[in-house]
Specification:
Elements: H1 7-17, H2 22-25, H3 46-57, E1 64-65, H4 78-84, H5 87-90, H6 102-119, E2 123-124, H7 131-146, E3 150-154, H8 159-168, E4 176-180, E5 182-183, E6 186-187, H9 189-195, E7 200-207, H10 217-226, E8 230-235, H11 246-249, E9 253-257, E10 273-277, E11 289-294, E12 300-306, H12 327-363, E13 370-371, E14 380-384, H13 389-400, E15 402-403, E16 406-407, E17 418-422, H14 429-442
Helix pairs in contact: 4-12, 6-12, 7-8, 12-14, 13-14
């Protein structure tokens, strides 16, 4: 690294600090932390490195995975990969100067438009880190709007999302999180009506829920609105190709994880947080919004419209301190939606659901196994087994290179033998048969 300070400048800086040398500045640092010996292997040539990497990659084991729970093994269209690989998208930076950023601003605008159409909501921001942070930001928006302290949430929401929301509010002990229990796998609407009161800021629900079951979000929203409270729906955007949308059902905020719109799982990220709301709440929306306008010649142009974030106003006045809009992932989601269109997305949903129904029927034939719930599901379902699901998962993975699903023991004792199994368009009937044989062999 080149540092342009001259010897004279260094001398002047040391004199100003009041020390004689740089060594004197760092003399307080323990010796073992200064220039420690790094045990690295001998340097290799490019050819040798290439050979070594091939050897290492040969040790990889392909796992046929049936795990979902918020992150899904989706097919990424070739056209989507090709467009995302273009240099102008890979290297694009935050579009502070619209006159020099029309391309990236347009892609963000198209993404926002796609999310508004998909969720049937009025406004969308330019995306966030992931589904859990979008969820937490929606909770914070409801608290700001209502000025109230109690947060009601369905027990069917992904536990990680609730953990994230609680972490956001951890420093302020005045907020109360209260769970609405499930009844036969879906949110108990009677309990919601009983617990909602004048101190309630909002009600939170997901669709499909964490157990894969389709919630009656229209009735739940209506019950919450009768009590005059704000509502948030965390909805899988992929499933909205076939299910009722949060906007149609009247929710104030609708959020989701955009990974299921063709983005790779990538060992946990980067992902895409979708955030949409009714127009009346747009000033509480975190992040930024891109808008379309016309220049002095009447030509279409794109600008950053609302930017209620810490880089543009005082930090303590910002709706959020999130600094990323996940633009490349957002572009991927917009391309995916454009490639499939409403009809194609619905067909993909039907493939997912048909495979899941087929798997539920076949796996229920295993001796001692049964579906835990009889409610309609999308592409995930809970299978109860005659053995501990955690142990079964380990055995199936080791013997057959198949991950049969997510063991749900973390939800409580009643789920110790329960497996959450997910089917996507990347699976087929042969995969289902192999899964069935593997589970039967390990019970």
């Amino acid at each position: 690294m080149y540092i342009s300070n001259t010897e004279q400048e260094k001398k002047e800086m040391l004199e100003k600090i009041g020390v004689s040398s740089f060594a004197e500045i760092i003399s307080c640092v323990p010796r073992e932390f200064l220039n420690p010996e790094v045990n690295l292997p001998k340097a290799l040539s490019e050819i040798e490195i290439s050979k070594r990497m091939r050897e290492l990659s040969g040790k990889n084991r392909r796992i046929l995975s049936f795990v979902g729970a918020g992150v899904y093994d989706r097919y990424t269209p070739a056209a989507m990969k090709a467009i995302l690989s273009r240099g102008e998208f890979l290297t694009a930076y935050t579009p502070y100067q619209p006159e020099a950023s029309q391309g990236i601003l347009q892609t963000i605008y198209e993404y926002q438009s796609s999310m508004c159409a998909l969720y049937e909501m009025d406004c969308s921001n330019a995306s966030m880190y992931d589904g859990s942070t979008s969820f937490a930001e929606a909770v914070k928006a409801c608290l700001r709007i209502s000025g109230k302290k109690k947060i009601l949430y369905s027990a069917g929401i992904n536990p990680r999302y609730i953990e994230t929301a609680k972490t956001y509010l951890a420093e302020d002990k005045q907020y109360i999180f209260e769970e609405i229990p499930l009844k036969d796998g879906i949110t108990d609407i009677k309990s919601l009506s009983e617990k909602a009161d004048g101190e309630t800021a909002c009600f939170l629900v997901s669709n499909p829920n964490y157990l894969g079951i389709i919630e009656d979000i229209e009735s739940l929203n209506k019950a919450a609105k009768e009590k005059g409270i704000l509502t948030v729906c965390s909805a899988d955007p992929f499933a909205l190709g076939a299910l009722k949308t949060p906007g149609y059902c009247g929710f104030d905020f609708a959020v989701g994880e955009g990974q299921s719109l063709g983005l790779p799982m990538s060992y946990g990220g980067p992902y895409l947080g979708i955030f949409t709301c009714k127009k009346e709440h747009v000033r509480q929306m975190p992040g930024r919004i891109c808008g379309m306008t016309k220049d002095k010649d009447g030509k279409r142009g794109f600008v950053l419209t609302l930017q209620a974030r810490e880089q543009h106003i005082r930090r303590d006045k910002a709706a959020s301190n999130i600094c990323s809009n996940q633009a490349l992932c957002a572009l991927g989601a917009a391309i995916y939606c454009a490639l499939l269109g409403p009809k194609g997305l619905k067909e993909a949903c039907m493939i997912n659901n048909s495979l899941a129904v087929k798997a539920s029927i076949e796996l229920s034939k295993i001796k001692g196994a049964k579906l835990k719930y009889s409610k309609p599901f999308f592409n995930e379902f809970v299978l109860d087994l005659p053995v501990r699901s955690l142990e079964l998962r380990r055995k199936v993975s080791e013997k057959f290179s198949i991950d049969p699903g997510l063991d749900l023991g973390h939800l409580g004792k009643e789920f110790e033998n329960s497996l959450l199994i997910c089917l996507t368009e990347n699976k087929n009937e042969s995969d289902i048969e192999n899964l069935k044989k593997a589970i039967e062999a390990c019970i």
